[in-house]
Write a structure and sequence with these properties.
Layout lengths: L4 H16 L4 E5 L5 E4 L1 H7 L13 H15 L8 E6 L5 E12 L5 E9 L1 H23 L3 E7 L5 E7 L1 H7 L3 H5 L3 H4 L5 H14 L1 E9 L5 E13 L2 E10 L1 H60 L5 H28 L2 H6 L1 H16 L2 E7 L3 E2 L2 H22 L3 E9 L2 E8 L6 H5 L4 H12 L3 E6 L5 E8 L1 E2 L8
Parallel strand pairs: 11-13
Antiparallel strand pairs: 1-2, 1-5, 3-4, 4-5, 6-7, 6-10, 8-9, 9-10, 12-17, 13-14, 14-16, 15-16
The structure holds adenosine-5'-triphosphate and magnesium ion.
Magnesium ion binds next to helix 13.
């Protein structure tokens, strides 16, 4: 269909008006790059009120790219899609342009290029910024010392195969990323904890995160202990769990060494205490037997000498009497010292009698009323344990005398199930938890260590104005109760 001249000019007018309102820049170029038509946006972008040559808008470097684009476009390679290019304007400004070319022929059958240009600089810069920051995050994700992985949380709270895994995880577990991404976390990370993991997922769901210990199983079959920090996240619009796994081999090794060295020190302390106890027993026996016998022999001799003196030898008789008194005093002293070193009653009558005896001694020497209430059944306590309990009791009483300002002490010894329980309760000023836990409180530490070495405990409690209670618990074989462990 042919348009008559009038209609043709009208159409041209309306098209030109329409293009002028376009938000995109529009221009029509001939094969030499000369501008036949351009709209308002075009002039705004290139700051060119009377555009003549398209290429002259650009710097020398960018002109080469534009020329190539135009040449390609005018020959056979007509692009059907838009092209994005970063170009430099002649004033040095950098612009990202999207170029959308299309062709038509004018009435003289000349091929003209209709070029739509969109300024996409800010969009492109945002995209590049986003890519850069994603790149940075990915490199942090990959270069961290911890293994990181993500799994979806499937229906029924089970975990999917890995959906994200960092390079550290691949290195630690000795897999390639492709191999690992097909694995299920239970088979390589929670190897020994699959059952436990149901509970952990519950915690993650209710609290949003959980920290737990796990074992990683490498491709070559090595076990690596790990501390796992897990978080509930939304990944690709689905609930997922992010796991950060820290290799704790070295920490566990250090902890093991500390534990072992602590055990060695405890054993050494126990050994030293046993030696000390043996020496005390030996010295007590030597003093009691040897010195006691000597003094008794001396006493007999001096008594015999005394009997040989006649009535007139008053002075000598007095000397003999005072010597005999001195020997009696010495025998008493020796007995007291021997008792102090290792009370006979402990070895001969057992712990119950020894505690009773010690309580009476304490009352006598300090004036603090010490009452004993013992309601123990038949039980057996070996020598080591009865010595330990007795020494703990002595230390507790010494503390009452030295620190408590008390005038009454109640001692309670009883058995409960397979425990022997000794309570020493004073009505003094009380003790603070800081004093109990102070590493310088060596007396208290000694009591605790002594009990601990024999499988028992010492607890010291105090409440406002109610004095201090020391509670010792030691495992025993209770003869009245059927012992499950017998
Ligand atoms: N029954 C008690 N009442 C009040 N304070 C106490 C009592 N027992 C201990 N304490 C406090 O706890 C502290 C620590 O006691 P601990 O037996 O460890 O050390 P110590 O008696 O001072 O010295 P030692 O090493 O000679 O025993 C004491 O200094 C005292 O302040
Ligand atoms: Mg003390």
């Amino acid at each position: 269909m042919q348009l008559n001249n009038n209609k043709y000019h009208n159409l041209q007018f309306y098209l030109s008006k329409l293009f002028n309102e376009f938000i995109e820049a529009v221009c029509v170029l001939d094969h030499q790059g000369l501008i036949i038509y351009s709209n308002k946006t075009y002039s705004n972008i290139f700051n060119d009120a009377e555009p003549i040559n398209f290429i002259s808008n650009f710097s020398f470097e960018s002109q080469k790219q534009i020329l190539q684009f135009l040449n390609n476009s005018f020959t056979e390679n007509i692009p059907t899609h838009s092209i994005e290019k970063e170009l430099e304007l002649k004033n040095g400004e950098l612009l990202w342009l999207e170029l959308l070319p299309s062709f038509f022929f004018n009435d003289k059958n000349q091929k003209l290029l209709l070029l739509i240009l969109r300024d996409i600089t800010s969009k492109k810069r945002c995209e590049l910024q986003l890519l850069k920051s994603e790149d940075q995050y990915r490199s942090i994700f990959n270069q961290t010392n911890d293994a990181i992985c993500i799994c979806y949380l499937n229906y029924g709270n089970s975990l999917s195969n890995f959906i994200e895994i960092n390079e550290t995880a691949c290195r630690v577990l000795e897999y390639t990323k492709e191999e690992l991404i097909e694995q299920n976390p239970y088979s390589v990370i929670f190897n020994k904890y699959e059952g436990e993991f149901v509970k952990i997922i519950d915690i993650i769901l209710s609290e949003g995160h959980a920290i737990f210990d796990a074992v990683q199983l490498t491709k070559s079959g090595k076990y690596i202990p790990a501390e796992v920090n897990s978080h509930l996240i939304i990944y690709n619009d689905k609930p997922a769990v992010l796991f950060v796994l820290r290799d704790v081999t070295q920490r566990e090794e250090a902890e093991r060494k500390i534990r072992e060295s602590g055990e060695r020190l405890r054993n050494l302390a126990l050994h030293l205490q046993n030696i000390r106890e043996e020496e005390r027993t030996l010295i007590a026996r030597e003093i009691h037997d040897e010195l006691g016998q000597m003094l008794t022999f001396l006493k007999i001799q001096i008594t015999l000498i005394g009997k040989k003196l006649n009535e007139n030898q008053h002075l000598l008789k007095e000397k003999v009497d005072s010597s005999l008194k001195m020997i009696d005093d010495s025998i008493n002293s020796i007995q007291r010292i021997a008792e102090k070193l290792r009370p006979n009653v402990l070895d001969e009558l057992g712990i119950e009698a020894a505690i009773d005896w010690q309580a009476k001694e304490f009352s006598e020497h300090t004036g603090i009323i010490c009452t004993c209430e013992c309601s123990v059944g038949e039980f057996s306590l070996d020598k080591e344990k009865s010595t330990a309990l007795f020494r703990i009791f002595q230390e507790a009483l010494t503390n009452v005398a030295r620190h408590a300002n008390a005038n009454k002490v109640l001692v309670n010894l009883n058995t409960y199930k397979n425990q022997l329980i000794l309570e020493i309760k004073d009505n003094g000023k009380g003790i603070t938890q800081n004093q109990v836990n102070n590493p310088k409180s060596l007396g208290i530490l000694g009591m605790k260590e002594r009990a601990m070495l024999l499988g028992g405990t010492v607890n010291i409690k105090s409440s406002m104005n109610s004095g201090t209670t020391v509670r010792v618990e030691l495992p025993i074989i209770n003869k009245n109760v059927t012992n499950l462990y017998d």
